[in-house]
Every structure is written in C-alpha cells, then in structure tokens.
User: Fold this.
Amino acid sequence: MAQAVGTIRVLIVDDSALVRDMIRTILESEPGIVVAGEAVDGAEAVAKVPLLKPDIVTMDIEMPVMGGLEAIERIMAKHPVPILVVTTLTGVRTAFDAVSKGALDVIEKPDITPENVQTFISRIRRLCRVDVPAHLAVMGRRSGHPARSGGRAPQHKGSIVAIAASTGGPHAIHSILSQLPVTFPVPIVITQHNAEGFTKGMAEWLNSGTPLTVTVARNDDCLVSGRVYINPAEHSMRITGRGTILLGDRDLGQIYNPSCNTLLTSVAAAYREKGIGLILTGMGNDGVSGIQAIKQAGGYTLAQDEKSSVVFGMNRCAVELGCIDKVLPLGDIPAELMLRVGGRQ
Assistant:
C-alpha cells in the first residue's frame, strides 16, 4: 500500500518489547502517523536510521549493547533526524544529557491515558518538522561558560529575570545559563513545562553546566542574586513583593501546568518596571499573557527568535501580540541579559 503524502514515519527505539508495543499502539491509532520500524538498542537504531529514513525517532536511554546517549551522538553525526527521548523517572538526569547530544526534547514514557497520549502525539507531530541540521548549527555556536567561583552572592532586592519555556526549552535554558557569570547580579526564576518528577533531574543537569547555582524552588525561598530557581512541575509558582517564592496547587485556571503565565504575571505585579521577562521556544501560548503583563507594568521583555527555536510557538504568539521589546537569536540572549541587569562578564 502506498504511503500517504505527509505521513509521519516513526522509528521506535527501546529494549522493552512491552514499551515498544505500547508506543506502537498509541502511534498507529493516529491518522497520518506510521511506525517505520523498531530497534531494541542504540546500535540497531544507528543502523536503521539511514535505511528507514524516519521523520522522527523515539529513543530510550538505558539499553544494552549501545545506550541512547551514544546512539544519539552517532545519529546526529551522520544522519541528523528529530529525536524525542522517552524515559522513566529513574533515567531523567541522564535523559537531559541527551539534549546536549542533539535530542530535541525529553518526555515521560506514556501511560495510555487520554491526557498523556495527546501530549505524546502532539510532541511527535511538532518535532518531526524541526530542521535538525539548523538546530545543531545553533548548538554549535554556543560559547563556553565562565569558571565557577566560590562564595554566595548577596541577596538582591532590585530586578529579576523570569523565563518561560516549553518544547525545546531545556537546551535553550542550558545555553543561556552556561554563558552567564557567577557574578550575575539578579535572581532568575524559570517555568519549564515538565512532567511531574522531572524537575529535579533537569535542575541537576543545568547546575552541572553553569557557574550559577540552580535549584528546584521551595516554598518561602528568599530570592538571591546569581541563583536560578526552577518551578517544580507539580506546583504553581508565584513571586511575592517581598522577593520570596510562593508554591501552591496547580492553577486550575491555566491550560498548562506548571504555568508560565502564573509565574510571569506574579513577577509583573511584584517587580513592576524592574521585571525582565524572557519567552523561549515552546508549543502553545503559555506565558504570552504573563509576559504581556510584564510589558504593561513597565518591565523589559525578550523573545527567542524563530530560527533558533525548536518550536516557534509561545514566543511567536508573544511577538505577534506586540508585547516584546526585542527578539533575539539564542546565542545573543545572555549578553542582552547582562546588559539589562548591569552585570559584568
């Protein structure tokens, strides 16, 4: 039977037959998606990519013979293709390492529930359209980060940087933070769409690649300059006028959780003209009303440009709404942040 034009071809890579069957069942229930093949380890995946020419690969990390990290590295070196890492909570820290190798995103192994299935399918449909060679070129232009120095930065009561990100966000955030110095004079707060349980692994991964201190935010944390606070996926996160973090239940009024809008709107209210908002790559429109609130409060707003974005979605909506002061490629964002906070490299 001839394959329909525009059909998405997927290569499933996992050493578990049960997981492969589950992913196959999910994918084959969707119109316009076919399973081009399966691989039981990284070595088989490396061999099958040039033969099957899939539009996207779902990649496990912990596998015999050859693990997912090495497989991703080899595939990106010779036959670049969109790769979505599909992992369990036990492999989260290593899974985020895959982003540094060229994988586009990380997602939890899907249970067959309507919400999880639709999240999985939407990632497949979006990521298969990414220009991977262009993405790798953006990654290659990233500069090294300054050396970490000792000592605790003083508490800062001035401005703040608030970042919103979704699909493709982990790489973008890593790229930005890796180029900021330990002397960065304001705190940074981040909401990144993640599955519950993924935030700790992401924070550990980011912390290993930046001179700044990256932590999962805790309720009543006092914001400190040079420190990065990641919104835990199971909570809403707000910043108070006292410069502290307020964690609450997930915001039922928001489509996405953790909610970028919730964080950015609170920053607008607490910091007014001293707030700096940055909206990065991601699906949907979460963060748009929040960054608009920062702009209306007199703060400064930035957006990642289309060319360097994995998915030009959230940031595109913000740009089209007219609430962004400057649109920049990923590689130029760290210098702009330094300029805006009056820091020194």
Q: What stands out?
A: The mean pLDDT is 90.
